[in-house]
Specification:
- The complex is a heterodimer of chains A (about 200) and B (about 625).
- In chain A, about 35% of the residues lie in helices and about 15% in strands.
- Chain A is an alpha/beta fold and about 200 residues long.
- Chain A has one domain: Pyruvate-ferredoxin Oxidoreductase, domain 3 (3-Layer(aba) Sandwich), CATH 3.40.920.10.
- In chain A, helix 4 crosses helix 5 and helix 5 crosses helix 7.
- In chain B, about 40% of the residues lie in helices and about 15% in strands.
- Chain B contains 20 helices and 25 strands.
- The chains are: A alpha/beta (about 200), B alpha/beta (about 625).
- The structure holds thiamine diphosphate (TPP) and iron/sulfur cluster.
- The site of thiamine diphosphate has 23 residues of chain B, from helix 4 and helix 15.
């Protein structure tokens, strides 16, 4: 199979979200997609259900802009990859471009059962980063799950924490204001979502 | 308000949801399904909105029944829609093929989805488009959610115009892709009960009438070809003349656009969305653009390629048609595959594709923590042994194919585990242990068990009764005691099996000792034995617990008592881990769903419930 170097297009931004089924990959994707729509942008997404969802590798493709044609991101075309579990970032390598892809990773290690049974050690985080490094422009890793547990007692808010970090560093073509408005509209003012988002954006790192 | 019910405007819709919107805009009265990824969400959404919209919806025992019920509604003049996955079409095909012969009065739309790359289909990579040809039925193939909605709505009118069911073909990336949809007005369908069944319509055909009708069908197909040509659904995208042109459908069409964009090429592209494909338009496209080569772009088999080649041969045109020669007939379509093919045809150098390195760890899907299937497998392996022959079937328990369970020795299709078990018994004299889920029991397991009893087989059938159709997203079935959002009669699996003449026992997989005792007793008997292993799907249980604020225990390993035998790790629960550096077994609290089985497995009583529990 083949690929050509992606020609820069006028209006296209590709976000690829991954993690382990049940971690909130789809929810995060839905929030970013809705926020982009609320800014009047055109959006295409692709997800998988069924068998793929039972604690396996999960992917959500999100394409913003009218020049995107397919719902799946072509190879070497991701602008941002988000991995809610670091090991899951590695299957995304073919979508990455050394010159532009920015990676956001949660440091939480969810050890696959296969590793436990076969006594395969989970690679340490530096090893994972090392593998990814030659394929992306930048890696940002946060203790998002740990922060979420600290602040809410629940790991599921890690996705919103990472979103906050992306907004802080302006990694997405959407304003922080639109995102928090979108979260408020979809989930209400109460609950932990806005608090976590806010704390991630204000945090020092 | 759900986006799909908004009165107007533009919304981002899943392909599956767009089916529902299209049907609402067409004034549908009735919808039925048997769930199957990637179209389960069509039925689930119909269920969710049925009260609000007044569109009656039913989960059926299997796809054949679902199609028949929808046909009955359409015979009586109301509009109906039925949805299932490609394998479901196989099950329903026996009733669907005659429908074109019989005709329908109210519009009837049959929605199905193929699953290129088998993302959610462990059985075969099937191309169901060929059924349109065998069934003499028109088939529409959308390439985005807008078209899904528009085509669905149009399909009802088309169905009524030609008095035959219309097929709507999705594929995974269309069903589970979201694109913007401009909404049209919702139309209230005719109320149930207002249909009229007239026996003068003669809903039956027998030879010689059936042959006459078959001849008529071929005339209708010709008319439909004209209809296809005039529909405006097959589109041509302008491009350069005198070179290469593309012909594609569905998701492959969008990949063509992406590929041409990336290569900076302006090639003419013909999109085919309406089968029977208009032969004269295909010929015109090739002639008008003075094409020397045509690349047919489609997922799985060469459905379009064959027909384009036929047109070229009939017209005696000097053009080379290339399809599967350069784009393999397996896996799903990607723009990269087209870029590769065009590179070959046009002599453009294409750099090698970057592949995921082989040493990247692949995380397979796994049974949930606390899944009752894992407990059943465990108890059965303890009593029947790892070397027994285990007949597999279709459901979440298919995941028992992986280590450390490894108890699905063959998997063919829904219900087949038991039929094959009987064949193996006949050939080898062995007693096979065959699994089936509760939904599979009602779907196709019943005749399998009847056959086993009737033919005096010897086997142990384990009905893994988690009270729901879990794999496809927790839909109810006749054993669940509920139907779409309402209580329903609850059919008893054990009583049915007893009535069929099988020896029956009911067990709880979380009571491991007791279940193993019962299994041993049953193992010593002869004949067809059915063991109903009953415990709710843990995912459903956890959702209900959260909703009703019920506390679920969390387990931990008391390191003082742990003798590091590793028995709990053998159980293969995703919450149990081994830390090699510390030589320590531990439970990840966030993952524990409190089933208690590991605490029963530990020979030293080291696994205990925590005093504080999670909600
Ligand atoms: C003919 C056919 N229809 C539908 C499906 C989709 N399907 C896959 S698994 C499954 C669930 C079966 O439910 P059950 O037997 O109760 O097992 P569970 O998932 O609850 O463990 C279904 C419907 C299929 N594979 N084949
Ligand atoms: S969804 Fe239910 S049946 Fe399926 S693996 Fe999870 S707990 Fe088991």
């Amino acid at each position: 199979m083949a690929e050509t170097k992606s020609k820069p297009k006028a209006d296209e931004f590709n976000i690829l979200i991954t993690g382990v089924g049940g971690q909130g990959v789809m929810t995060l994707g839905a929030i970013i997609a809705q926020a982009a729509i609320n800014e009047g942008k055109e959006v295409r997404t692709s997800e998988l259900h069924g068998l793929a969802k039972r604690f396996g590798h999960t992917e959500f493709h999100l394409r913003i802009g009218k020049d995107a044609k397919t719902t799946i991101i072509p190879n070497k075309s991701a602008d941002v990859i988000i991995a809610l579990e670091p090991l899951e970032s590695l299957p995304l390598i073919k979508y990455c471009d050394k010159e532009k892809t920015v990676a956001f990773l949660d440091s939480i290690q969810i050890k696959p059962t296969k590793m436990d049974i076969k006594e395969i050690p989970y690679p340490n985080l530096e090893e994972i980063k090392e593998k990814l490094k030659s394929h992306v422009k930048e890696i940002n890793m946060y203790d998002a799950s740990a922060e979420a547990v600290k602040q809410t007692g629940k790991r599921v808010y890690a996705n919103i924490y990472l979103l906050g970090k992306m907004l802080k560093y302006k990694a997405l073509p959407i304003s922080a204001r639109t995102v928090s408005k979108t979260i408020e509209k979809e989930f209400g003012k109460e609950g932990f979502n806005l608090k976590i988002l806010d704390s991630a954006m204000k945090g020092k790192d | 308000m759900l986006d799909v019910l908004k009165p107007n405007g533009s919304v981002l819709l899943l392909g599956d949801d767009a089916v529902v919107r299209g049907a609402l805009e067409a004034g549908v009265s009735f919808s039925s399904t048997y769930p199957g990824t990637p179209v389960s969400e069509v039925g689930d959404l119909f269920c969710q909105i049925s009260k609000e919209t007044g569109v009656h919806f039913e989960y059926c025992a299997n796809e054949k029944v679902a199609a028949e019920v929808a046909a009955g509604v359409a015979f009586s003049g109301l509009r109906s829609i039925v949805s299932f996955k490609h394998f479901g079409f196989n099950v329903a095909s026996d009733s669907i093929f005659p429908l074109a012969y019989h005709g329908v009065k109210g519009g009837m739309v049959i929605v199905f989805s193929d699953d290129p790359n088998c993302w959610s289909s462990g059985q075969s990579e099937q191309d169901t488009r060929f059924f349109a040809k065998i069934g003499h039925m028109p088939m529409l193939e959308p390439s985005n959610s807008q078209e899904v909605k528009d085509f669905t709505k149009y399909a009802f009118d088309l169905s009524e115009k030609y008095n035959m069911p219309v097929l709507l073909r999705l594929t995974t990336r269309i069903a589970y892709g979201k694109t913007m949809v401009k909404l049209g007005p919702i139309k209230k369908g005719k109320a149930l009960g207002t249909g009229k069944f007239s026996n003068s319509d003669k809903w039956s055909t027998m030879p010689p009438k059936i042959i006459e009708r078959h001849a008529e069908l071929h005339e209708i197909i010709e008319k439909l070809e004209k209809e296809s040509s005039n529909s405006g659904f097959n589109k041509i995208l302008n491009g350069n003349k005198g070179g290469v042109g593309l012909i594609a459908s569905g998701v492959s069409y969008t990949c063509c656009l992406e590929a041409c964009d990336r290569l900076g090429l302006k090639l003419p592209i013909m999109k085919l969305s309406f089968y029977p494909y208009p032969k004269k338009d295909i010929a015109k496209f090739i002639k008008e653009y003075d094409l020397k080569e045509v690349l047919t772009v489609e997922e799985i088999e060469d459905f379009i390629e064959q027909q384009v080649k036929q047109v070229v041969a009939e017209e005696g045109m000097q053009v080379k048609v290339i399809g599967k020669e350069l784009i393999q007939p397996w896996g799903e379509m990607r723009s990269e595959k087209i870029i590769y093919a065009l590179g070959k045809m046009l002599g453009i150098e294409i750099p090698e594709e970057k592949k995921t390195p082989v040493d990247v760890f692949k995380r397979d899907p796994i049974l949930c923590p606390g899944c009752p299937h894992r407990a059943s497998f465990w108890n059965i392996k303890q009593t029947m042994g790892a070397e027994a022959v285990y007949g597999g079937d279709i459901g979440c328990y298919i995941l028992g194919i992986f280590d450390p369970i490894n108890m699905q020795d063959y998997i063919v299709s829904m219900g087949s585990g038991t039929g094959i078990a009987h064949g193996i018994h006949r050939a080898t004299g062995k007693t096979v242990v065959a699994f089936m889920g509760d939904s599979t029991f009602f779907h196709s397991g019943l005749p399998e068990i009847a056959n086993a009893v009737y033919n005096q087989s010897d086997m142990i059938i384990i009905v893994l009764d988690n009270g729901i159709t879990a794999m496809t997203g927790q839909q109810p079935n006749p054993g669940a005691g509920i139907k779409c959002e309402e209580n329903a009669p609850k059919l008893s699996i054990e009583e049915i099996c007893r009535a069929m003449g099988a020896e029956v026992a009911v067990v709880n997989p979380f009571a491991t000792k007791k279940m193993q005792e019962t299994l041993k007793e049953m193992k010593d008997k002869k004949g067809v034995r059915v063991i109903v292993s009953r415990q709710p799907c843990r995912l459903m249980f956890m959702r209900n617990a959260k909703k009703n604020k019920i506390k679920v225990p969390v387990y931990y390993i008391d390191q003082k008592l742990c003798k590091k035998c590793g028995k709990c790790n053998e159980y293969g629960c995703p919450a149990i881990h081994y830390d090699k550096k510390k030589d320590m077994y531990y439970i990840d609290e966030n993952m524990c769903w409190g089933c208690s089985v590991c605490s029963q497995i530990c020979p030293y009583g080291a696994i205990k419930a925590k005093p504080e529990q999670k909600e």
